[in-house]
Amino acid sequence: MAAPLLEVENLQVHFETEDGLVKAVDGISYTVDRGQTLGIVGESGSGKSVSSLTVMGLTRARNARITGTVRFDGKDLLGTSEEDMRQIRGNDIAMIFQDPLSSLHPFYKVGAQIAEGVQAHRDVSKAQAWDRAVEMLSLVGIPEPRKRADAYPHEFSGGMRQRAMIAMALANDPKLLIADEPTTALDVTVQAQILELIERLQSEFDTAVVVITHDLGVVAEMADEIAVMYAGRIVEKANTDTIFAAPEHPYTWGLLSSIPRLDAPRDEELVPIAGRPPSLINLPGGCSFHPRCPYVREAHTKVDPELKPVPGAPGHEVACLLDSSVRRKLWSELRSGVKPAEARSDVMEEAR
Amino acid sequence: MSVSASEATGANPVAREKIMEVEGLFKHFPIHAGFFRRQVGAVKAVDGVSFDVLRGETLGLVGESGCGKSTTARLLLRLMEPTDGSIKFEGREIAGVKGNELKALRREMQMIFQDPYSSLNPRKTVGSIISDPFAIHGMHKDAGERKKAVQELMDIVGLNPEHYNRYPHEFSGGQRQRIGVARALALRPKVIVADEPVSALDVSIQAQVLNLLRDLQRELGLTLIFIAHDLSVVRHMCDRVAVMYLGRIVELATSDQLYSHPRMPYTGALMSAVPVADPRLAAAKKRQVLVGDVPSPTNPPPGCRFHTRCWKAQEVCRNEDPPLVAKDGGNLAACHFPLSDAEVLERVPSARNVNG
Amino acid sequence: MAAYIARRLLWAGFLLFVISCITFVIFSVLPAGDPAVARAGRSPSPELVEIIRVQLGLDKSKPEQFVNYIADILPFLGGNGINFGFSYQTNTDVLPEILERLPVTIFLTTGAVILWLAIGIPVGMLSAVKTGSWMDRLAMGVALLFISAPVYFLGLVAIFLFADDIGRFPILPGNSAYGDADSLLGRAEALIMPWCVLAAAFAAIYARFLRGNLIDTLQEDYIRTARAKGLSERRVVFRHGVRAAITPIVTLLGLDIGILLGGAILTETVFNIPGIGRYAFNAINLSDLPVIQGTVLFGAFFIVMMSLLVDILYAFIDPRVRY
């Protein structure tokens, strides 16, 4: 088997602040193969964006302490000089962001902003770079690309701006595209357009994609594999089907049952996750999810669970101290409509 | 057009009384240009909208940004003056009320805003934020009595009443939204408009606020007008739903009807565009991707406003504006060529539930 | 755009009219020294004062005086040409006197503007890029010092230190040198000290302003995008950061130039430079109403025009702005 395109190993990103050490990313590992899509799901403050910016070498704060390894195409990125990193950014690894309006410079023409990225990495004339920009705009489905290249970002609609961002990101045929909440700021019909566009371009150019989102629907439609992050850690990782059909982490359950779904009966009861995400400075002891977990036991407040393979499910890893058989039983009860509180008393007694 | 939606849809077994009646509502924002600032056009944010709100129901308004749903809501609350049209609240015309009458009306209708961060004054304690409506309307003048009323409200929305003296920044996003809810409830209004109340919140927190709103609505018998762009949330929350496009209502039906039998192709496209948190279903469903963008509300297309993006559009759609009338299944829809059940089944995940 | 400019010009005219009304009220209706007495010299006879009063038109009613005054600005109202009135003190038309002093004020302003931009902008940029470094702290500390020191204090300190007649280190032409200089170079030399003193506070303000702006701009999403494209840090900061951060400076600069063209009163007075500012200062001392009104109106004219110019310029600098 060929080496993965991107290999992140035990990545830690900590920020030293006056209030204490912020453990934004606290030891995460994942791999992305060529042409594959990894979905990273989490709420704000889970570390999903910080970890990806670190892969790009864009965690620039002077108080950041980064450890671990990030191997891209066989190269260790964390040890790379800033100049070499600059040549990788926008060339081998590209990124698109949540808000396409604020992510484009208001004073420069869209075509010029794309051409600038081309010229940063290719030895081409201004005219050639401009032609490439027009070509990319047409590729992402912008009508009259030559005319639109001459327009400013504020003259584009939201969807068109995100298309332009994608054109910019893919202008140098990157091997990896990191999409940070690419459709969160967009309307649902535009979101469908953009998701379809990313999928089409991905299959056309065999680009690997890391999509970061809080929206489980988006990853269900896009990702091959999903990593669920909570408080700076990956708490569950599996292929997409498994995450939705047989999740084993109580946080993943919580996410799945707290969103209303179009494919479920209308009167389904939403089960929110109690409490709120912890402060990254004072993480709770033991499992960091334990204060919000309905199935918490005494030991969970002391032992920090590691991400471990689920027995009998290759590729499925979970960081939970409950026994796998207990977890499966709990999930099947939850799915059949049992409230967490009731499930807890039954199954937990048994497990004890 | 005056056919009441509740009668037409026929799906509401308990004939509920109308608390609000909206007829031919318009809001045009003028555009001025030239030396004398002549009006050269208008943004037709709300362009002829008629519907009823039933007492005790949750009515959803959905649509993409710029469709006029928030403007409609602000007009209902008379936070804006309509350009034309009639709004009746409990049978009384309120489209033109001013001054004290308007102030009195504010006690009946309240709003919950989207952003729990910017809609609360950071310099005021939670107690004074929630009691502001009392002060404005001269209620509970006695300090002790007011405090008691505020703490009661905090308890109702699931906040710790002892946190009366804390400031908004000491609360999380979900808790701040609860503060907003408590403030809206302070005057015991009959109608509450919630404008995207959960879209700024984290996923795990959203459900807390949605459940709270639903419970309060049931317990207090409130009439809730719920505006959101998230179709799954709207389906979950609402009894009836109006779909808006370019300042018009293009489809109106009970939630069950709308989500299982959308008639208007735009509604179908919206529903098929929603990503479903189920990879198998996601793979199986046909994603109806609409081409292009929403046309400008300054100059909406002639005929059916949706024809420029509709895959079923024909000559008649370009010329004739379809009226909002009852289609088969009972939905009110403004469409010349409504969707067939087969088309719906292919595209809309929520249709599968009902049809097996 | 043309309609916009036309409307703004009309508005500017109205504004200037209102300003002349206000100055007239402040200096003529409110009690102040009697200009006729001031004109008449030492211990004048009441008859002489009365004659002067009639000469100056001060015997007429206030509204009449105002109409006469306006007529000197807008000749179609029956005055004899645009002259901004007649100085009580020097027996001359005000407008020629102002125009004669204008080049001096322009010279002073231009030099100072170049100086403060040349210092303020690089310092602000460097401070923003190296936030928190010793350089940043030093620059911002010095800037605070200059902002807090008033021009008359800084000017006097400069004269006591460097003026070639009374200074500790007599290296620069001092007070009144401008009037004595006969060549352009000599005048420029005479202005070195005023330029520096005038520019000091402005350079400090601009440096701090640009620093703050640039720090904010460098946090923007589009800067992150520029970095993600793999642009060099130099290009990110200058082409993307400074370009956006410097735009508000245009507004500031336009208004500052407008204000100074109306007369840098303190600087001109301290260094005894024969510009509009000193002319206005003297007129205030002598209750020379027509001159006060003339200079105030002139200053207001520059401010109004510069702010119009800035707004027009903005349409070219920021593509989002359209009129």
Automatic annotation (TrEMBL), chain A:
It comes from the Bacteria. One of its GO terms (molecular function) is ATP binding. It holds the Pfam family ABC_tran. Keywords: ATP-binding, Cell membrane, Membrane, Nucleotide-binding, Transport. Residues 6-256 form the ABC transporter domain. It is found in: Cell membrane. The keyword Cell membrane applies. SUPFAM superfamilies: P-loop containing nucleoside triphosphate hydrolases. InterPro entries: AAA+_ATPase, ABC_Ni/Peptide_Import, ABC_transporter-like_ATP-bd, ABC_transporter-like_CS, Oligopep_ABC_C, P-loop_NTPase. SMART domains: AAA. Its main location: membrane. Coiled coil: none annotated. This is ABC transporter ATP-binding protein. It comes from Solirubrobacter deserti. The lineage of its organism: Bacteria, Bacillati, Actinomycetota, Thermoleophilia, Solirubrobacterales.
From TrEMBL, chain B:
Keywords: ATP-binding, Nucleotide-binding, Transport. Pfam families: ABC_tran (PF00005), oligo_HPY (PF08352). This is Dipeptide ABC transporter ATP-binding protein. NCBIfam families: oligo_HPY (TIGR01727), PRK11308.1 (NF008453). Signal peptide: none annotated. Residues 20-271 form the ABC transporter domain. Coiled coil: none annotated. GO terms for molecular function: ATP binding. PANTHER family: D,D-DIPEPTIDE TRANSPORT ATP-BINDING PROTEIN DDPF-RELATED (PTHR43776:SF7), TRANSPORT ATP-BINDING PROTEIN (PTHR43776). It comes from Solirubrobacter deserti. Belongs to the ABC transporter superfamily.
Automatic annotation (TrEMBL), chain C:
Keywords: Cell membrane, Membrane, Transmembrane, Transmembrane helix, Transport. Its main location: membrane. It is a multi-pass membrane protein. Residues 102-314 form the ABC transmembrane type-1 domain. PROSITE patterns: ABC_TM1, PROKAR_LIPOPROTEIN. It is found in: Cell membrane. The chain crosses the membrane at residues 9-30, 104-126, 138-163, 192-210, 244-266, 296-317. PANTHER family: DIPEPTIDE TRANSPORT SYSTEM PERMEASE PROTEIN DPPB-RELATED. The keyword Transmembrane applies. This is ABC transporter permease. InterPro entries: BPD_transp_1_N, MetI-like, MetI-like_sf. CDD domains: TM_PBP2. It comes from the Bacteria. It comes from Solirubrobacter deserti. Pfam families: BPD_transp_1, BPD_transp_1_N. Belongs to the binding-protein-dependent transport system permease family. The keyword Lipid metabolism does not apply.
